[in-house]
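Structure (tokenized):
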């Protein structure tokens, strides 16, 4: 989100005035140890390989040293095959549990003042859901703020995922960027400041081209939300050709697929600054494009595949468009959503992503069709060898940090991905898109010790990944909850994921008691 309403310039300067609180010194987590052996777990390694177990996973000095199969399911573990614990080492019994690589969230804004979401709240929600790496795609908090949190996370001084910090194109510039030379100068300055990449929203073609090419030359990466204001002259194909790493959301892709028009069929009274217009009309966009499987559809898909382009769809962030009540009534809001965040979500002509001036059956049905076509493209792209990643963009449109992650996985499943393909998108493919595949993204020898451990099989039901678990009926006819991540391990430090959620709950209770706030349904009081 964070689409810029009028001028990138004015908004970014405004946003930099106030920043959310940084994360406090770390009090959570056990370890690291010189050696950590996780015993008897079933492994889902993130590469697309099927589960295998029981295995013992050996970590030494934060690197995976060995993964050893130590038995067969249902049979006693072969003690003679087990790796030996060294002095000072730690054994962690995970029999009956599942171990996956730490998750990557490719679109994670670290809170914001508008949302009233401080870093600790956001980080703990992410870590509690197994997210050990995030890319902040251009933060309103400013590059310095994010780089500070990034450094502290690297040293594990705070409880937080690894951070890749991208900068909004033009952010911090003293004047608007109007020439390719200015663009190149800004890109160099951004690299010098230590940014990991750039997030674009759109600019004149010669500026986009100059900025993307220079950025790539410097070895940095890029993300782009193709906002409608510039998409008529620069869609995802232009971006991919100029070296863009990932496209965010989906805008710019239907436009690349147009056959019988060159602009979206905007109603003539459309105004981009009116978010009801923006989101309602966007729901009619995919069906204006070339049909699935048509010559033009295939041509666009093949060119993107040949350019090794990455799609980061953030499906969940638009879900309220196809089912507003589902997003608004999600069962975690009461206990985990900050009052300020709830207020930010409510219908408003001013807040971004709160465009519910009038949202009903017609809009939702159009968006359901929009999703079908969009998912069709994603699934075919994946089947043809393309990289689709998992990003959430939480903090907008009733999507909560952490909780939106399993939802994104479910939506990829709905798009046709096998659950193992879903997990690969969440782990290895995210790592590849960040250029970190030698360090993270799969459970393989030599990589860092970032893991998610669960007491239920996420392949059978991705909902066990929600912090609130999944509902089951036991043999005594009682309703029980299963799942929720049990341990999140980052850099060999083991975090009790349930405890992190307890901390978040407490933060929300405190905030509510200050204001006497209760979640209400919009307009219900007066109805
Ligand atoms: Zn965003």
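Design, position by position:
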């Amino acid at each position: 989100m964070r689409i810029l309403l009028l001028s990138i310039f004015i908004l970014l300067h405004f946003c930099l005035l106030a920043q959310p609180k940084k994360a406090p010194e770390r009090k959570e987590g056990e370890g690291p140890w010189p050696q950590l052996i996780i015993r008897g777990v079933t492994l889902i390694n993130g590469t697309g390989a099927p589960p295998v177990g029981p295995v013992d996973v050996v970590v030494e000095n934060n690197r995976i040293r060995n993964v050893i199969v130590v038995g067969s399911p249902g049979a006693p573990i072969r003690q003679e095959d087990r790796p030996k614990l060294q002095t000072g080492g730690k054994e962690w019994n995970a029999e009956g549990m599942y171990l996956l690589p730490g998750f990557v969230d490719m679109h994670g804004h670290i809170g914001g003042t508008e949302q009233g979401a401080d870093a600790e709240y956001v980080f703990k929600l992410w870590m509690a859901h197994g997210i050990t790496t995030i890319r902040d795609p251009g933060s309103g908090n400013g590059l310095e703020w994010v780089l500070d949190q990034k450094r502290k996370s690297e040293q594990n001084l705070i409880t937080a995922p690894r951070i890749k910090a991208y900068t909004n194109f033009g952010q911090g510039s003293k004047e608007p960027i109007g020439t390719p030379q200015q663009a190149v100068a800004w890109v160099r300055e951004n690299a010098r400041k230590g940014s990991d990449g750039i997030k674009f929203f759109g600019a004149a073609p010669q500026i986009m081209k100059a900025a993307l090419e220079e950025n790539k030359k410097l070895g940095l990466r890029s993300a782009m939300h193709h906002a409608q204001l510039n998409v008529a002259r620069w869609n995802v194909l232009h971006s991919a050709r100029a070296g863009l790493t990932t496209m965010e959301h989906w805008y710019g892709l239907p436009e690349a697929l147009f056959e019988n028009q060159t602009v979206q069929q905007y109603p003539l009274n459309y105004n981009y600054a009116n978010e009801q217009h923006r989101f309602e009309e966007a729901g009619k966009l995919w069906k204006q494009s070339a049909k699935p499987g048509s010559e033009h559809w295939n041509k666009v898909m093949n060119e993107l595949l040949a350019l090794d382009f990455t799609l980061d769809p953030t499906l969940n962030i638009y879900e309220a468009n196809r089912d507003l009540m589902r997003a608004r009534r999600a069962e975690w809001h009461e206990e985990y959503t900050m009052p300020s965040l709830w207020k930010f979500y409510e219908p408003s002509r001013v807040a971004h992503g709160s465009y519910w001036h009038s949202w009903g059956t017609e809009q939702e049905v159009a968006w359901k069709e929009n999703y079908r076509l969009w998912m069709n493209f994603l699934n075919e792209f994946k089947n043809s060898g393309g990289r689709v990643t998992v990003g959430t963009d939480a903090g907008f449109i009733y999507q909560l940090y952490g909780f939106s992650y399993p939802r994104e996985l479910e939506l990829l499943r709905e798009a046709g991905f096998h659950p193992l393909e879903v997990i690969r998108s969440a782990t290895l493919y995210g790592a590849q898109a960040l250029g970190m595949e030698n360090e993270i993204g799969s459970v393989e020898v030599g990589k860092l010790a970032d893991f998610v451990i669960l007491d239920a099989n996420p392949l059978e039901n991705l909902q066990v990944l929600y912090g609130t678990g999944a509902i089951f009926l036991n043999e005594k006819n009682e309703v029980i909850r299963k799942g929720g991540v049990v341990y999140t391990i980052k850099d060999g430090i083991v975090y009790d994921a349930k405890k992190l959620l307890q901390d978040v709950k407490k933060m929300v209770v405190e905030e509510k008691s200050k204001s006497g706030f209760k979640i209400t349904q919009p307009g219900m009081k007066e109805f």
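Reviewer-requested clarification: Residues 361-383 form the longest helix (23 residues). The pocket of zinc ion is lined by residues 1-2, 107, 109, 137, 393 (CB under 6 Å).
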